[in-house]
Design goal:
Layout (H helix, E strand, L loop, with lengths): L3 E4 L2 E4 L2 E2 H8 L3 E5 H18 L7 E5 L6 H10 L2 E4 L2 H9 L7 E3 L6 H10 L3 E4 L2 H13 L4 E6 L25 H10 L6 E7 L9 H8 L2 H10 L6 E3 L16 H12 L5 E4 L3 H4 L3 E12 L4 E5 L8 H5 L5 E3 L7 E7 L8 E9 L6 E4 L21 E5 L2 E6 L4 H5 L9
Parallel strand pairs: 4-19, 5-6, 5-12, 6-7, 7-8, 8-9, 9-10, 10-11, 11-12, 14-16
Antiparallel strand pairs: 1-2, 2-3, 4-13, 13-14, 13-18, 15-18, 16-17, 19-20
Helix pairs in contact: 2-3, 2-10, 5-6, 8-10
The chain binds ligand LLP.
Length: about 425
């Protein structure tokens, strides 16, 4: 059995009962299923294998920001993934997790000098450059090091994709990428920038993009642009077409991967370029759950609160994006439903996972999972309310491994100082 499944009436991950994980590591804890990650990786790479020629198979650069645990990264690397990073910290993680630097791409609108130096000395595949000032800065830094920085320019295609305004990145008013006018200006500057080696273009229109049409609209801007740039003597060898593949949290429409792969074949493939993609959520989102224990059931005149031991500092998505996450008991999964507001112990009303959710009746002490928490869950967690980072556990073929132990309160204090004049 792989992924999350029921066995003897209990929810399990890759054959491991979740209650045994709670017993071994305590709650709250993130649990990741290696089986589910592999299934997703194979579905995406399989769709590409089916439709794209063997010599044009894309490098699937996992978006590290979605889940940057070293163990998760190493697992995806073992499956064949490359890595997309947005900071020196993520780049260092990637190297530590064993990624070949030639499979790492560095995106982001605010790369610092130190991050540029790290990228250059590590020999990464490319910097995805997002502005003219960044381009000039990178040329100067590479010049000091007597190197040439491999880059692609990130195009802002002015396309609305992305399931929520906070995660759309390809619209005119977004901070990301260069729109066509600035892009041309940047290409025109290249002859005067001896420490830049431009290899092509990139784009990423947003997250949870559920219609092939949004991708198609963005892709269709590429052939004309690539031809025009080539006609001006620029070499366009690579196209990094970003991530944004959606997962189901509730009842969203899934992207038709075959249709997507066909658009890549029909629109991108004829351009004879190396293809890169940057999937994040798709590979890990539904491979993770936040395992939590019910602390109290609190009745008020108005409603019934299910107070669990995980909170917004562990999983901020509902508070930040009003996002829906399925919630399920581990055992007694089919009792008659009761309506609950599921909340954590943090001291704000925003610490609410859901309101008025109909769930099988629960009691204090029961275990529940908050699902679809493998992407942007742990990676966005904080120590708010001085709550330690929680363990991350990987299940694999009936076994479980701790990928991160629970932080201690002393570890939280370790970097803080009381002034000696107090
Ligand atoms: N490439 C770039 C340049 C990105 O900025 C992102 C995500 C990705 C790839 C991966 O996107 P994905 O395939 O995971 O959709 N915290 C938000 C999501 C922020 C996404 C930021 N960029 C959330 O929890 O929904």
């Amino acid at each position: 059995m792989s992924g999350f499944h029921e066995m003897n009436g209990e929810l399990c991950a890759d054959g491991v009962p979740l209650s045994s994980i709670a017993e071994a590591y305590g709650t709250p804890a993130y649990v990741y299923s290696a089986g589910e990650m592999k299934k997703q990786y194979m579905a995406l790479s399989g769709a590409m294998q089916e439709y794209l020629p063997a010599d044009q198979q894309p490098l699937l650069c996992f978006a590290c920001k979605a889940n940057s645990n070293l163990g998760v990264l190493a697992y995806l690397r073992a499956l064949g993934a490359g890595l997309e990073v947005v900071s020196g910290g993520e780049l260092t993680r990637g190297l530590k997790a064993g990624f070949n630097p030639a499979h790492i791409v560095f995106t982001g609108v605010g790369k610092t000098r130190d991050e540029m130096i790290l990228g250059l000395t590590s020999g990464i595949h490319q910097f995805n450059v997002e502005s003219v000032p960044e381009l000039i800065h990178l040329n100067a830094v590479a010049g000091e090091m007597n190197m040439k920085a491999p880059i692609v320019f990130r195009l802002n295609p002015h396309v609305t994709g992305g399931g929520h305004t906070k995660i759309s990145t390809g619209r005119k008013h977004d901070k990301f990428g260069l729109d066509e006018t600035y892009l041309k200006q940047a290409f025109d500057m290249l002859p005067s920038l001896p420490h830049i080696r431009c290899e092509g273009l990139s784009m990423h229109i947003g997250s949870q993009v559920s219609t092939v049409e949004s991708f198609k609209e963005a892709f269709e801007k590429l052939p004309g642009l690539v031809r025009a740039l080539r006609a001006q003597g620029h070499s366009i060898n690579r196209l990094d077409i970003g991530g944004g593949f959606p997962i189901i949290y509730k009842d969203e429409k899934l992207l038709d991967l075959s249709a997507y792969a066909k658009w890549v074949r029909d629109i991108i493939s004829p351009l004879k370029v190396e293809i890169i993609m940057e999937p994040g959520r798709y590979l890990v989102g539904n491979a993770g759950v936040l395992l939590s224990r019910v602390l109290y059931i609190k009745q008020t005149p108005d409603r019934q609160f299910l107070i669990v031991d995980s909170a917004m500092n562990d999983l901020i998505r509902p508070a930040m994006y009003d996002s829906y996450h399925a919630i399920e008991p581990i055992k007694n999964r089919h009792l008659p439903p009761v309506s609950y507001d599921v909340v954590g112990p943090v001291c704000e009303s925003g610490d609410t996972f859901t309101k008025d959710r109909s769930l099988p009746e629960l009691s204090a002490g029961d275990l529940v999972v908050i699902r679809s928490a493998g992407a942007y869950g742990s990676a966005m967690s904080s120590n708010y309310n001085t709550r330690p980072f929680i363990p991350e556990i990987l299940t694999h073929e009936g076994t479980h491994t701790c990928l991160r132990t629970r932080q201690t309160i002393e570890e939280i204090f370790a970097k803080e100082h009381i002034p000696n004049w107090l």
